[in-house]
């Protein structure tokens, strides 16, 4: 069965599961590698944050892309939704030892970077949320993992506690790189230590 058909079937089961409650069977889907994985319903996704969820309004929210770029960008939520979107089944692995897998929908981060045109000296991309949480990925990390800027999970808009209206989804990286409530993307030269990285967490955050 094609991956798209499998994902649609998983979404249908998730909708049915929300109606039936806790007595429903486990929902599974097939990953791109062919592995059968459990899909985590939105209401059962864990909440791990280093800051309180900010009261963001999609109508006034803005995403700023700036720093070592030829063209600075300011995007509204309408601008984000107008971008080509992808849906991917991606596992979120936590440094605590657990993981969750969901269907995330959003725009490729690389698409925004291509539009901003990083300067030759740019090496690292810093992500910023309104509460001051930050993390980073090198441009090489981004080429390797192809992150999404996601606004939807399992066919639903992101809940506030999961990063509404925009969250970074980074395949094969630990969850502290999956910054929520993204409002700023800054390109810099050299390395950068974000919130958890400054406490000694690996800046690479490899999950495998």
What integer value in Å does the Rg equal? 17 Å
- Can you tell me the number of structural domains? 2
**What is the CATH homologous superfamily assignment of the largest domain?**
Oxidoreductase, molybdopterin-binding domain
Q: Provide the CATH architecture of the largest domain.
A: Alpha-Beta Complex
Label the structural class. Answer: alpha+beta
Distance between the termini: 27 Å
Oligomer: single chain
Task: Give the strand line-up of the largest sheet.
Answer: 4-3-12-7-8
For the record, the CATH class of the largest domain is Alpha Beta
Low-confidence stretches: 1-9, 16-22
Major sheet attributes: 5 strands, mixed
Q: What is this entry, summarized?
A:
The protein contains 4 helices and 12 strands, in the order αββββαββαββαββββ.
Describe the protein in words.
- The protein has 208 residues and is an alpha+beta fold.
- The protein has two domains: 1-39, no CATH class; 41-199, Alpha-Beta Complex (Sulfite Oxidase, Chain A, domain 2), CATH 3.90.420.
- The protein has four helices and twelve strands; from the N terminus they run H-E-E-E-E-H-E-E-H-E-E-H-E-E-E-E.
- It has helices at 3-20, 77-81, 109-116, 139-145, and strands at 28-30, 36-38, 63-67, 73-75, 86-93, 99-108, 124-128, 134-138, 148-153, 156-157, 167-169, 184-188.
- The chain has a five-stranded mixed beta sheet with strand order 4-3-12-7-8. Strands 5, 6, 9, 10 and 11 form a five-stranded antiparallel beta sheet that branches.
